[in-house]
Write a structure and sequence with these properties.
InterPro entries: T2SS_GspF_dom. One of its GO terms (cellular component) is plasma membrane. It is found in: Cell membrane. Keywords: Cell membrane, Membrane, Transmembrane, Transmembrane helix. It comes from Streptomyces inusitatus. This protein is an all-alpha fold and 282 residues long. The protein is built from 12 helices and no strands. The longest helix is centred in the middle third of the chain and has 45 residues. The chain starts with a helix and ends with a helix. 19% of the residues are buried. About 8% of the residues have low confidence.
Length: 282
């Protein structure tokens, strides 16, 4: 049986490394202030609850490490540490995909708001360029392309081309429709406000379809989450009954075989369910 002392040593080394990294960051900040010719103020405490909560929100994948460390100490094995190290990049990739999806949804909502805002300002008497600039600043729907679009609108540039460039960002596909409405209104004399109203109605209908699909897939998502939590529930129940499942899994040949087989089946089940959800979304 592996003694738990190396595990505690690993935890201590991790804490010392974090302290050294924090001290290095503070030293870099003082050096930048000195090179910039500014006064060196007393640095803020490197550890506060607010900073800890902010780090947890932005780097949630690193929560796998303390969980793995607890399991390693309880089970007196290094296998959870290895699994935790492998899980950090995988969980981080998944969380990044979730954040990108949420950002795409927020951008799509902002594009809908942009269409309504431009149409409203046109009816209030503003010129198209002025209405677009005002709406872009207030809705933040253009993202990184805001500077190019506002510059084209302010100085007489190619506004549709700038809008199509901004439409390449995730969730901003509706800006291509705004560009088409703008070009038709400028070249053919059609009403820009009426075209934006129709575009806004189409984008809202598309959003309603996405929300309906999300509600229909909620049951499948719950099944995937339940599937992922079942092993933890089984371990907790075994520990409550006094069976010591961690010792069996980490220190017996049959337990190691069950751990490998169960992990493979768990991963296959989650991937299969996620693929079904992705296919339904398509």
């Amino acid at each position: 049986m592996i003694a738990p002392d190396p595990l505690y040593a690993a935890a201590g080394c991790t804490a010392v490394a974090a302290l050294l990294l924090a001290g290095r960051d503070r030293g870099r900040g003082r050096a930048r202030l000195l090179l910039a010719g500014g006064a060196v103020a007393e640095p803020d405490p490197w550890w506060t609850w607010e900073r800890l909560l902010s780090a947890v929100r932005t780097r949630r994948e690193w929560l796998c490490v303390p969980v793995a460390l607890v399991l390693a100490v309880l089970g007196e094995s290094v296998l959870p540490l290895i699994a935790g190290a492998v899980a950090v990049p995988l969980v981080g990739r998944r969380l990044k995909a979730v954040r990108r999806a949420r950002e795409s949804e927020r951008r799509a909502e902002a594009v809908v708001a942009l269409c309504g805002a431009v149409a409203g300002e046109l009816r209030a008497g503003l010129q198209p360029a002025q209405a677009l600039i005002w709406a872009a600043v207030n809705t933040r729907a253009l993202g990184a392309g805001e500077a190019a679009v506002t510059a084209a609108a302010r100085f007489g540039g190619d506004v549709p081309q700038a809008l199509r460039g901004a439409a390449r960002e995730p969730g901003a596909d509706g800006l291509a429709g705004v560009a088409a409405c703008w070009r038709v209104a400028v070249e053919g004399g059609a009403g820009l406000a009426a075209g934006l109203d129709r575009l806004e109605a189409a984008l809202l209908a598309d959003r309603d379809r996405r929300e309906d699909l999300r509600s229909q897939l909620a049951g499948a998502r719950s099944t995937v989450g339940l599937l992922a939590l079942l092993p933890a529930v089984g371990l907790a129940m075994g520990g409550a009954l006094g069976a010591d499942p961690l010792r069996v899994l980490f220190h017996t040949p049959a337990g190691l075989l069950c751990l490998l087989a169960g992990g493979a089946l768990e991963a296959a089940g989650v991937c299969w369910a996620a693929r079904i959800i992705k296919g339904g979304r398509r």
